[in-house]
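Page 42, continued from yesterday. The earlier attempt failed because a stray header line got pasted into the input along with the sequence. Redoing it now with the clean sequence only.
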Amino acid sequence: MAIKLYKSQINVSKQSSTVETAKLSSNFGQQAFQAQQNFLDLTQQIENKYQKIQEDKDVLQTTTEYNENLNEIIDNTNKLNNLEEGMLSYDTASDELYNNLTGNIKNQNVKRRVDAHITTVNSNYRIDVGSNIRKNSLQVFEAGLELHKNSTFNKMFTGNPALKTQLENQIFNGTPDEPSLYDQYAEAGILTPGITRETFNQSLKNEYLTSEAQFLVKSDLNKFYAKDKAGEYNNLDFKTLSDIRSSANTAKVSNNNSYLSGIKKEANVIKDQINSVVSFAEKNAEPNAEQVNYLKQRSIEINDILVANGEVGIGNNIDKLNNAMFIFENMSSIKKLPLSGVQAKLNELLTQQKKLENEGKPNMSLILLGEEIQKHIDFREANQKGDLLKVGTSIGLSDDGVPFTIKPIDFTNIDIEAIQTRKFDAERIANQLNIPTAEYFFKSERNQFKNIIETGSEDEIKNAILTITEIAGEKSYLAFGEMSDASNAISQLGILFKHTGFNIDPAIRAFALRGDESTQKILSQYNTASNVDLAAVKENNLQVYKMSPAFNNVKHYKMMSAATDIIFQGMILNDPEYNKMFDTDDVPTDDAAEVMEKAVNIAVGFDGQYGGLEEYNGHMIIVPSRFPDADGNLTVVGHKNAEIGRGEDTLEELLESEKMTDALLARAVSSAPVLPQGLEIKKTKAKAFELETEYQPAPATVKDLFNQKRVHLVAKGHGQYIFVFGDDPRTSDAKLRDADGQVVTFDLSKIYSELVR
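This time it went through. C-alpha cells are written below.
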C-alpha cells in the first residue's frame, strides 16, 4: 500500500514541477524531504489504523460465529441427562468448533483476542451446561421412580394376594435387592425438607388407596363397594373419598344404562351375523363352525337378558339360525346323492314327519328340510340332463366348504385358466353326482356355440372347435356330443379332428360358404337331398345307425350323416382333382360315388389307416380308429381297415379265426351271455336258427356268436358292440342278453391286441 501511495506522490510531484519552477527557494531540497517524511508517517498511521479495523472485524466475525454455533451445542447438550456423557459431548463439540474456526487464523493479535473471548465464554457456559444436565438427570430419575411406583400399584390392583403383599413390602420397607421408595427418593435428594419415613409411607399408602379405588370404580364397581363398606378407604381425606364415591354412583347408573344399551347393540350385531351365516349356508358354503357355535350360545344369553329387562328378544333369529344349520348339515350330504337317493331321503323324512304329527309333535326343522329336499329334486329333474354344470355349481360340491364355482367359457375371448380347469370341474361333478357321463358345458355356452356356428366366420368356427378339444381332450367325443344340437356336422368334425387328426379346414370352409350363391351352384349337383345315387351311397354305409331298432342311435346317425355331406363338399370345393367328376353336361360321374364313400368313411372315423367302415355279415359296421385306455381316453391305436386295403384281416375274419377263443370272449363281454329264449343255434350246414318248442338256456360260445350268418354286430360305442340276432340287423330287435336279462356288451378293446398278435 505504501508503494502505491509513493508512486502516486511521485506523479503529483511531476505535475507540480511544471508550475513556476523558477520560484523555488535555495532550501527546497530539505523542505521537500521533510514533506515527504511527513507524508510517509501519515501513510503508516493510516495503514496501522486500517489494520486495526480489519483485526477488529476478524475478531468480531469469528467470535460471533463461535457464539452462534456454541448456542446450538448448548441447546443439544441441555437435553441430556447423563452428566459424564453430557460433558464429554459438550467438550468434544466445543473443541471441534474452536479448531474449525481458529485453525486458519494467521494474525496472532486476532487469534489472541479470539482465544481470550472463547475461553471466557466457554468456561461460563460449561458450568451452566453441567448444572442443566444434573437437573435433567434428577428429573429422569424422579420420573423413573414415579413410573416404578405406578407400575407397582397396577400390579397390586390386579395381582393375587400373595403378589400384592410382596410388592407392598418392597415399596414400603424395601428388600435386600431393592431399597424402599423412601430410601430411593432420599438417596436422590429429591425429598421435600422435613419429610420423614413415616410421613412418606403414610402419604404413599393414601396415594395407593386412592389409585386403587379409582381403578375399581372403572373396572369392578361391586368390588369397590365391598371394600368401601369394609372401611378400607376411611383413612382418605373426606373430599377425596366423597369424590370417589360420587364417581362410583354415577358409574353405577351409567353402567346399567350402558350395559343394556350395549346388549341391544350386540343383539343387532348378532342378528346381522346370523343373517350372514344363513345366507352363506343357503349358497351351499359351509359356515365357520366356531362362529356358528358362538352365535348359538351368545344369542341365547342375549335373548335371556333382553327378555329379563322387558325388551323384545331375538328368539326368531335363534330359530332361523338353528333351522338353517340343520338344513345345511343335512343337505350337504343329501345333495351329493344320486337323484334316486335324494328321493329316498325325502320319502324317509315324510314318514318321520307324519309320525310326529300323529303324536302331536310337529317339527318345523323337519318340515323345512322336506321342502328344501323337494326343491332340490325339482331342480335336479329340470337341469340334470342338459345343464349338469348348473346343478354342480348350485349344490356346492366343494370338499373344503368353499362354494364350488366354474369360470365360464367365452368362445370369442378365450380364457386359458377357464379352459384348463373345465374338464376337471365337469368330470368332478359327474363323479360326485354318480352320473356316468360328464357334461362339459353350460346350456348358455352351448347356445353361444350354436350362434357362432350359425353366424360366425370360418376362423371363428374353427377357434370354437379348437376350444372344445382343448377343454375335453380325449373326451372330446363326449363334449362335441353336447354340441350336436347346434350343428351335427360341426360336432362330428370336432370329434374327427381330435381323434383321427382329420384336416377339418376344407370342410369348415365349405360349411362357412353354405350361404354363398356361387358355392351353392357348384354343390347343387352333389346335394344328397336331391342326388339319389349319392344319397344311396351314404345311406347304405350308415344304414345300421339309421334303422336298427336294437341300437337306434339317431343322434349319432345325424352327426355322421351331416359330417359326411360337409366333408364331401369340402373335398369338391378345395381339391381340383375332383373336377373330373363332372361330365360334359356338368353332371356328376360315377367318380362322385367313390368320393362320397370316402367321405362317409372319414366321417365315421377313418384316419387313412385305422377305423372307418367294414362289412360284417353282409352289413356295414364301424370299426374303431382308437381304443380307450384305462382312463377311458381314446389313445390306443385301433383296427387297420382291411376293406380299404390297409390291413391284413377284416374284423370279421379275426373274430371267426382260431385266435378268438371262449376265454377271450369271457374277458370282452360285460356279463356271461346265454342264447336267446325261443331260439337255439343249431350247428347245421346252413348255420341257421331254428325254432325250438322248449327253451333250454345255454351259455353262448364263440362258435354260437361269431360263426353264424344271423348273428350281427351293431356298434354301441368306440370299440363296443352288441349282438343282434336275425336276418337283418336293421329290422331285428333280438339282442344277446345274460341270464338276468341285461343286454351284453362286447368290448373289442379288451382283447384286440391279442387277436392281431
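Notes: The longest strand covers residues 711-717.
Reminder to self: strip header lines before submitting.
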